């Protein structure tokens, strides 16, 4: 019998204080540092889901919409949106926390794909994830389209072999 996990069971939160060593010469967080934190935060969600080591297979587009400055507090939140056979899609959202009014401003978002591996480095089947909230359900439903787009862009699937993308074009 296959176990079903809830999206909330895979949730991870990571907090960072932006220090001068994290920034470029004009005091903005360097993108590579943010991507590293996002990868780690998302990877922990994938590990919680699979109960195995999980390695990054892909990262969707990331746009740096807002600068993150020295002294800012950054909160990263991630959870598994959908699992497939051996892979999982994880959303990671980044927020800048205003310490004066306690408000959070969303600055970045990205989807990561992780593959669960056993101790020998062989991919292993992952459990299904069950969305509960409306947002989780929407992310779950749209994950197949994002997956097909990733596979087409990577040359691992032909557009004619897609299901969701092909139907959108017809």
Explain this structure to me?
The protein is α+β, with helices and mostly antiparallel strands. It has a single domain (4-132), classed as Hotdog Thioesterase (Thiol Ester Dehydrase, Chain A, Roll). The chain is 27% helix and 32% strand. The protein contains three helices and seven strands, in the order ββαβββββαα. The protein has helices at 31-50, 134-153, 164-169, and strands at 4-6, 12-17, 53-59, 73-83, 87-97, 104-117, 128-130. The strands form two sheets. Strands 2-4-5-6-3 form a five-stranded antiparallel beta sheet. A two-stranded parallel sheet has the order 1-7. The longest helix is centred in the first third of the chain and has 20 residues, at 31-50.
Helix content: 25-40%
* CATH C-level: Alpha Beta
Please name the CATH topology: Thiol Ester Dehydrase, Chain A
Q: Strands across the major sheet, in which order?
A: 2-4-5-6-3
Mean of all residue-level pLDDT scores: 93
Task: Provide key terms for this protein.
single chain, alpha+beta, 170 residues, 5-stranded antiparallel sheet, Thiol Ester Dehydrase, Chain A
SSE layout and pairing:
Blueprint: E1 4-6, E2 12-17, H1 31-50, E3 53-59, E4 73-83, E5 87-97, E6 104-117, E7 128-130, H2 134-153, H3 164-169
Parallel strand pairs: 1-7
Antiparallel strand pairs: 2-4, 3-6, 4-5, 5-6
Q: What's the short version?
A:
The chain is built from three helices and seven strands; from the N terminus they run ββαβββββαα.
